[in-house]
Amino acid sequence: MGGGFVDEAVRAVPAPPLRGLVGWYSGYRQRGIPQGRHRGLPSPWLTLILTLDEPLSMAAHPDPFATPGDYLTLLGGLHLTPALINVPGRQSGIQVAISPLGARVLLGLPAGELAGIDAHADDVLGADVREVHDRLREAPDWAARFHVVDTWLLGRMSRLDGVPTASADPVAGSWQRLLSSGGRLRVDRLAAETGFSDRHLRNRFRAEIGLTPKAAARVIRFDLARRRLARRPGRPDLAGLAADCGYADQSHLDREFAALASCTPSAWLAQEFRNIQSGHHPSS
């Protein structure tokens, strides 16, 4: 692709059979932008990134022992610390937001096996990732690229039809309840609803989702707060945001940002302001 300034951000919903398993697709292509670093923040979605014109440059992973490096494709599970991504003036790809409940159906393994890590997607999913990566690079526009991803995931879902799922499991219902409550539902209440002990629910959650119920609630609440913060970056009312999202006060919100984003809400806004304004603030 030639030089010049490019700034594209496109979001799409997946094909109907994938909805509930996949949240959305985010396509992005940027050229001629300032060099910088993006924080991949904790969220309630697994992250699959299929690059287009250049690899993704990971400066730091949620796993502090993982080695920085370049990724043509990346698959990451739920995590409690940010990833750091180098942006050397250009980046392009498609990000797929996968529900933890869709991991077995689409990936062939529980989300717990990916907890806290990023991996080369083809190391986890096999050679068909390389094939879909090649088809994406040949597709002429975003609609065609999203269709390629739809077709690939639908094919995986068909092939993995016999893989046991957790869709009817009490863990799945508890996860949905946590999501619908914005992370405010008490863990003891969740356990009572399932008939599990707190310990058993915690172990099942960690295996199937990748986080304990308490940690999952923190991530869900944090993700909601930072998304609302991104919608009003010019005049953030942090005290009001804290109250709206179930934090005790602004100090509580600040502490959660320090723990989960390694920065304050104001620092995150300053670092990501340009991406937020242009629509480049994916959920990773």
Explain what you see.
This protein has 284 residues and is an alpha+beta fold. It folds into two domains: 6-162, Jelly Rolls (Sandwich), CATH 2.60.120.10; 170-276, Homeodomain-like (Arc Repressor Mutant, subunit A). It is 42% helix and 20% strand. The protein is built from eleven helices and ten strands. Strands 1-2-9-4-7-10 form a six-stranded antiparallel sheet. Strands 3-8-5-6 form a four-stranded antiparallel sheet. Strand 5 (56-60) and strand 6 form a beta hairpin. Helix 3 packs antiparallel against helix 4, helix 5 (170-180) packs antiparallel against helix 6 (187-194) and helix 8 (213-231) crosses helix 11. The longest helix has 19 residues, at 213-231. The chain is globular and about 55 Å long.
